[in-house]
Automatic annotation (TrEMBL):
InterPro entries in UniProt: ChsH2_C, ChsH2_Znr, NA-bd_OB-fold, Thioester_dehydratase-like
Domain ChsH2 C-terminal OB-fold: 52-117
Region named Disordered: 138-170
Segments forming domain ChsH2 rubredoxin-like zinc ribbon: 18-49
Protein name: Benzoylsuccinyl-CoA thiolase
Database matches in SUPFAM superfamilies: Nucleic acid-binding proteins
Residues in coiled coil: none
Pfam families cross-referenced by the UniProt entry: OB_ChsH2_C, zf-ChsH2
Amino acid sequence: MTTPVIDGWFTVDDGTAHLLGTRCADCRTVHFPPRTGPCRNPHCDGETLVQVRLPRRGTVWSYTNACYPPPAPFVAADPYEPVTLAAVELAGEGIVVLGQVKGLTVDDLHVGMELELIASPLADGPLVWMWSAPGTGDTNGADHTAKAGTGATRAPGTSAAPERRGEGVA
Ligand SMILES: [Zn+2]
């Protein structure tokens, strides 16, 4: 049984993963991770943030791999296998979200290519969001459970890079 590693940052319904963000009711700026309180847009006085499901596809903004295990509290599988990480700009939203890439290496990636959100378990069991090639992320409960332990499911997928491109200094 797998459960989301962070409550409230993403959801999986009928096998389809969605990141959860908040959208300002005044200026429409999207925040990820979801937040409460005033809008982060420095040019907006809005204080009403509404939870939204973020687009499941985006384009690669940058990518790398991690050839050594991240420090605790990350639970790395032993033996450790390098993982691929990508910062993906969500379609139409102008925000970039970092995640592990499942099933692809840095040799497979290039800036601008499209990736799709999935949910997959880390080595120690908790479910995290990951990026994958479009069309391969048609996950359901049995599917991503079955893929646990394939060696391609461990990474700091809990990291998030919520910076907005083009946003001014805070
Ligand atoms: Zn706003």
